Amino acid sequence: MTTKLELIAEIKAENPTLRTGSDEYGYVELNTKEYEATVEQWATSRLEQAAQLAEAEALATAKTEAIDKLTALGIDPKALGL
Amino acid sequence: MAKQTFTTGQILTAAQMTSLQQTAMGGGSTTAKTVSYTLVAADAGTVVQMNSASATTITVNTGLFAAGDTVQIQNVGAGVCTVTAGTATVSTSATLALKQYDAGSLYFNTTSAAIFFAVDAADGMTNPFTTTGDTVYASSGTTPTRLGIGSTGQVLTVASGIPSWATPATAASGLTLIKRATTTGAVNTGTTFDSVFTSTYKTYLINIEGWYAATGSDVPKIQLRVAGSTTATSYYGVAQNIDRSGSIAYNSTVNQASLQMGAAGTLDSAGPAQYAIYANRVGNSSQKASLYFTGVGAGNQCFINGTLFNDGAQTYDGFLLSAASNITVTVAVYGLATA
To answer: Which CATH number fits the domain B18-123, given the four candidates 3.30.2010, 3.30.450, 2.60.120, 1.20.120?
Structure first.
């Protein structure tokens, strides 16, 4: 699994600079402090999203396994609301 | 020189020739009058010049002039001089009342019918314009009056019978576009959507017309702003995604720094996501903001809906959109029902 430091290095390599704003009202490049904070925030968010996905997948896997076991025991999973 | 009837053998003098030239050029001998006057036959081809401080008349009678005769009439006095039909008819498309320094030519079509071709000293218009976009209208009937250009967004209206520029009244309901902007490959929308929530409306529609993140699966995050600062605490809410196969995923936000508008991994880079966010209790008072939204992930056709609540009572004036990568997004903010 990718570590936060690896993610930060990856994000920095992809984005040597970052900006904020809009086409109509102009853009401002982030200063060093803002840049570091944004990269750190992105890395954190990506890890959280990866964790959320892993949790969702684990839940789906557990549900499938439970349904299989209930079916093997002759119990209709639908009767249990699964 | 008055009109002459030349006879056989008569000698045309140099003085007569000079006078005739003057007459032919529209000048010639002038008969000065200081009181009201009735034209006589000898006035044919001459200039009758009125000079009186009081109102006067010049009367035109029939049987004195031949067809084709003309009489120039001038008024140099302060009193109005009116060309008056006596027994003859006098037609004109202008006025028969001559102000000071007005003039005209009385031309006889027949011995009993004349046309008065008036020249008004005030004819023609002094340029009233001073600024690009100025217009002109008639005040007090015929007086040209400048109407300065209005401000952006103003419309031309009529008040007390004259035109004016006015700011259109805010509709009691309906969509009013407040701001629309596009962010292309940036961290967030920055200060673009500051000062969009005011006391004018009690409900706002934030229409995200198209959303791409550099990392296609990144879902939008929204934060509220106050006076140029982003509120990064106390967000609560839930976002639910239902994909085309019926699978449901959700993301719960409890006391977070922002609200994530969708479950992780439910968007993709195949198409733009779209959202309609209805914002209440923002901009109107120090109430806790409440937003709800619906959306669609165009790539995987997932349906997204959710709520947002911020537990910090603030008079929010704007918002910021971001993700965990650069975003490209077009957003329009509309005011709905007035406060």
So the answer is: 2.60.120
A49 vs B181, B183, B264: nearest CB? B264
What residues contact B247, with CB distance under 8 A and at least 6 apart? none
Task: Inform me whether the pLDDT recorded for B5 exceeds 80.
Answer: no
Helices and strands in chain B: count of H runs, count of E runs: 1, 25
ipTM: 0.78
Interface check B188 vs A, CB under 8 A: yes
Which residue did the predictor score with more confidence, B332 or B31?
Answer: B332
Q: Which of B324, B231, B223 is nearest to A39 (CA)?
A: B324
Q: Which residue has the tokens 């006078």?
A: B19
Return the residue in A11, A45, A61 with the most chain B beta carbons within 10 A, the one to mutate for interface testing. Answer: A45
- Residue contact A56–B217, C-beta within 8 A: no
**Residue B101 to residues B52, B74, B144: CA-CA distances in angstroms?**
12, 7, 20
In the block, tokens 């200081």 appear at B34
User: What are the structure tokens assigned to A18, written together?
Assistant: 């970052």
Given a contact cutoff of 8 angstroms between Cβ atoms, the answer to whether B88 and B69 are in contact is no
User: A53–B324: do the CB atoms touch at under 8 Å?
Assistant: no
Task: Compute the distance between CA of residue B40 and CA of residue B62 in angstroms, rounded to an integer.
Answer: 10
Which tokens is B97 given? Answer: 């009342």
Structure-token match 């719960």, residue found: B252
- Name the pairing type of β-strands B143-147 and B135-139: antiparallel
- Single-letter amino acid, residue B223: Q
Pick the CATH number of B174-337 from 2.60.120, 3.40.630, 3.30.310, 1.20.140: 2.60.120
Query: Is residue A59 exposed (0-12), middle (13-18) or buried (19+ Cβ within 10 Å)?
Result: exposed
Domain locations along chain B: 18-123, 174-337
- The answer to whether B56 touches B39, Cβ cutoff 8 Å, is no
- pLDDT (mean) for B241-256: 84
What is the Cα–Cα distance from B50 to A50, expressed in whole angstroms? 102
Q: Tell me if chain A has a CB within 8 Å of the CB of B113.
A: no
Q: Which stretch, A46-55, B170-179, B185-194, has highest mean pLDDT?
A: B185-194
